[in-house]
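Reader question, answered in our methods column.
A reader sent in the components of a multi-part assembly and asked whether the whole thing could be modeled at once rather than chain by chain. We filled in our standard form and ran it. Here is what they sent:
COMPLEX SIZE: two components
ENTRIES:
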Amino acid sequence: MSVPVPLLAVENLQIRVGVDGPLAVDDFSFTMAPGEIVALVGESGSGKTMAARAAIGLLPAPMQVCGGRIIFQGQALDSSNAKAMREVRGARIGMVFQEPMVSLNPALTIGRQMSEALKLHTTLDAATIRERCIAMLQRIGIKDAEKCLASYPHQFSGGMRQRIMLASVMLLRPALLIADEPTTALDCLAQLDVIELMLELTREQGTAILFISHDLSLVARYAHKVMVMRSGKAVEQGRIEDILFAPKAEYTRQLLEALPRRGELVPVPAADSALLQVRDVCIEHPGPRSFWGRSVPKRVVHSVSLSIAPGETLALVGGSGSGKTTLGRAVVGLVNPCAGAILFQGVDILKAANRAHRLQCQMIFQDPYSSLDPRMTVGQILAEPLRHEPALTAAQKRQRVTDTLVDVGLPEQFRERFAHQLSGGQRQRVAIGRALVRRPKLVIADEPISALDMTIQKQILELFERLQRQYGFACLFISHDLSAVERIAHRVAVMNQGEVVEMGPRDSIFDAPQHPYTRRLLAAASPLEKRADGSYRLRASVI
Amino acid sequence: MNLKTPALPGVAAIPPRRRRRYPPLNALIGGGLLAALVLLALLGVVWTPYDPLKLDLLSRLHAPNAVHWLGTDEFGRDVFSRLIIGARTSLWISLLSVSVAVVCGTLIGMLAGYLRGWTDRILMMLNDALLAFPGILMALGIMAIVGASQYGIVLALGIAYTPSVVRVVRGSVLSLRELEFIEASRVIGNSELYTMFRHITPNCLAPLCVLATSMFGWALLSESALSFLGLGVPPPAATWGSMLSASRTYISNAPWLGIFPGIFISLTLLAINLFGDALRDRLDPRMRK
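And here is the structure of the entire assembly that came back:
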């Protein structure tokens, strides 16, 4: 045979929701060669996860394969044969999940969980298994491997857990690794770490990767081939150079267009004094309590100073745990600083009767799924902030809610809907509406787009920018997504371990970063950028 | 973007809310049964087949027949009449004691869960001490203090059931207060009290509904236990519980004395549980189609 046998061949795969429900995946085919990295990109609901899960027979309950074949290493996989599937899963096809916080069992030690698969699929004795686990942990850069085996998952950070997860999957040397958004929940530095580690381990063992992601830059950087999916169908597939750098299909273009780019900024009106001043603020979290209720506080923000002018957007970037969210919460008054002062329009926000701050400073939360009361309608949610505007009559309030619905691009009939009837993007629109309905002067946006799909992210960013142009509010934009920051921020403050390490205008931070941490952040991001001729390339690293 | 641009994805995907034509089955059955029982209890105010308290020693322990539909008891009193009269007392006592427990428990649980810190610790310490007592023992103690009467029972059972409500409510509040919409309410400028009652209470309703309906059943039975110990509603007044406990002596030769109150208690529990489930679903917008 001249044509090598593909590692995995999926032919005309069809997945249905239930027996006669809609098709979740329709007529989907692809092949993978051994050792190849193939990316599956698309928005949520496009069926990319379902297609990959079908390969290991792990479709969630109502979904079922109703047509097509899956051939792995020359052998057809029959998901109805549970025993045969169990032998393939883990041993020959490994899987890494998206959420490192929940994909390890919190009640078992790392050692138990790592050795579990080896015990199942091999005949090795306990001592050898332990030896291999330790070797693998050392391989992924864990210093005290013995201690790690006896620890529990909660003792590690998200990035560390994902490394451990990866290590335990790769212990079995599978021929194929399915990675379902393995780094989406991590900040950009941890993301880079995990991806590089995944590549190293798979290269050593010749493992192929089926990489599910919605991050086009990441895919362009690491994958060999890419498949773009939309509502269950493959839109386009081929080599990275052909698809992502020179897109042909309309939808792929649309996805690439959705990548935020540095653009025109909303002009900042000239002002004499700063709207918000943060002076040497330190914030402590109460540490774990002892039996008698004593706790040793942990300092998460160290003496940070910054200021925001009226109408200006200051972005606060940094990895997880850098204290940026805590600082944002302090500015809005949800956390009290232990030292320093926060002045809003020149008045300390902790002053008892600082009503101006309460009314003029609003917040947009990260998770649109938990930031809206499930028992209130959109209309009630939008009207709630107006309770504290006694100057408005009931009719004016009603009109304001209507205006706000128009502002955030939701039709009037959404007034009567409940949050669970809306999509993530629509919920975030409601959350933005709630923050703006009182026409505040300052809005704190805490990772407002990180829980959303790419094209929705673009829409929300555009909406935000339009509203800022319209109402001229200032914004503290907290994010770890550098490309979004590049799109809308006037100035950028980079935080690391509770300190602002660098602060400056957008262009100077992105083009000439001074601090090594900023450089590392920027290097980790390396976005796709559009060239003059309409093709795309990965931006060269600034270092 | 304005109203005319159809650019917003997913807007058309959600069909407008449909009105369900029929209420769900559990609401129909539960509600129907409950209405029938309440009607029966109200009927007792104006009419009973016989005087429920009148002794008739010539017709002791008659089996159900055409004259006495559900038979007579050891004093010759008509069982059906006593059941009708007892319905009012039993349902009323259970309803009141569950209400006392739910109201007190919710308030204490919300305070403890929302304020946390020392308030929480002291309240929960007291609560756990109460919880450690067997409910019926505590009810006995309270009855001994306030004396045997209808409202004594209500107070006793209400206090005895409060700790479990506190636990459930506090648990819900603790998990709810971490959600972002609670913080959003604080950022808006709402007071703590408003946040508690507008945002937290409605979201605690589902577990409370389930707990309250099962407590209603316990209350019906505990009332009979108290009656059995001589601390219930004093005789000769009839309650389902006291009828059930009095039947114990005659269980072999006059089983109808126990069977009929038993059937009524079971029917009530069934009705309340079905109705409670329906109510919980109705109150939760996520469950509506």
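What stands out: Chain B has nine helices and no strands. Chain B has one domain: 25-45+74-287.
Send us your own complexes using the same form.
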